[in-house]
């Protein structure tokens, strides 16, 4: 049964004006508009609205949400898993912030002592790694940059890039039964990290590189393609990329 805009607003707890705005910018267009001008929302519309509000809860701008939802690669179940990871991370940070506030209240009363480090526990202005993963996964900017970078190459340059890509994968596949933190494995993974940052038109931070490796095992499409070079390669690369990112963050 389709719902009118006021019914949806009351159900969700947002304003009618917000729903009208979502319609105006093409973010959420109702399934039907009657001859009298009433917007009617279907169950599919409500599912899409839920996705929008999950992204809003995580402070994604409306333009970015629209790009994500309009992407041909968007997958609802994948998005829900992403939302869950990001909200758990947000809850962890909030819990730590609340603990810092409680300690600060006690400190102000003279009940406890606090170190400078404890006073700022929970503050983290770096990029949320799961948000970065989401933006890398569904954002169009990285894809456009990569396509433009490759399009600007000559035929010989593209062939050389493809050969280099193939050589790196074969090298890593040959050592995939060893330890991902070995010197040999880390040297090969560094080649892969450098290749991505040199040939895709994008810069992968260490955190984004680590998240990319996790996607090799979380997304069966990645796993299937990578494991064509050897069974278990995706998992080995995931582990080696995580080691590489963690080690170089500390150095």
From TrEMBL:
Top-rank taxon, per record: Bacteria
Residues in HTH merR-type domain copies: 2-71
InterPro entries for this protein: DNA-bd_dom_put_sf, MerR-type_HTH_dom, MerR_fam, TipA-like_antibiotic-bd, TipAS_dom
SUPFAM superfamilies associated with the record: Antibiotic binding domain of TipA-like multidrug resistance regulators (SSF89082), Putative DNA-binding domain (SSF46955)
Keyword field: Activator, DNA-binding, Transcription, Transcription regulation
Pfam families linked to this entry: MerR_1 (PF13411), TipAS (PF07739)
GO molecular function annotation: DNA binding; DNA-binding transcription factor activity
Alphabetized CDD domains for the sequence: HTH_TipAL-Mta
PANTHER family from the UniProt entry: HTH-TYPE TRANSCRIPTIONAL ACTIVATOR MTA, REDOX-CYCLING DRUG-SENSING TRANSCRIPTIONAL ACTIVATOR SOXR
Descriptive protein name: MerR family transcriptional regulator
């Amino acid at each position: 049964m389709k719902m009118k805009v006021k019914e949806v607003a009351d159900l969700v707890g947002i304003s009618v004006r917000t729903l009208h705005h979502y319609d105006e910018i093409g973010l959420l267009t109702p399934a039907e508009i009657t001859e009298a001008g009433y917007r009617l929302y279907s169950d599919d519309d409500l599912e899409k609205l839920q996705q929008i509000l999950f992204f809003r809860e995580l402070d994604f701008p409306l333009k970015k949400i629209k790009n994500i939802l309009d992407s041909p690669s968007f997958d609802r179940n994948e998005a829900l898993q992403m939302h869950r990871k990001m909200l758990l991370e947000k809850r962890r940070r909030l819990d730590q912030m609340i603990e810092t506030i409680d300690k600060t209240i006690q400190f102000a009363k003279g009940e406890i002592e606090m170190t400078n480090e404890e006073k700022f526990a929970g503050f983290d202005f770096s990029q949320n790694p799961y948000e970065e993963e989401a933006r890398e996964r569904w954002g169009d900017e990285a894809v456009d940059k990569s396509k433009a970078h490759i399009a600007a190459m000559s035929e010989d340059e593209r062939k050389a890039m493809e050969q280099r890509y193939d050589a790196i994968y074969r090298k890593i596949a040959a050592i995939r039964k060893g330890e991902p933190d070995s010197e040999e494995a880390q040297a090969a993974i560094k080649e892969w990290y450098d290749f991505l940052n040199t040939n895709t038109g994008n810069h992968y931070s260490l955190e984004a590189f680590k998240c990319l490796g996790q996607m090799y095992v979380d997304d069966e499409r990645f796993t299937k393609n990578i494991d064509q070079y050897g069974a278990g390669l995706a998992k080995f690369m995931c582990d080696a990329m995580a080691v590489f990112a963690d080690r170089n963050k500390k150095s």
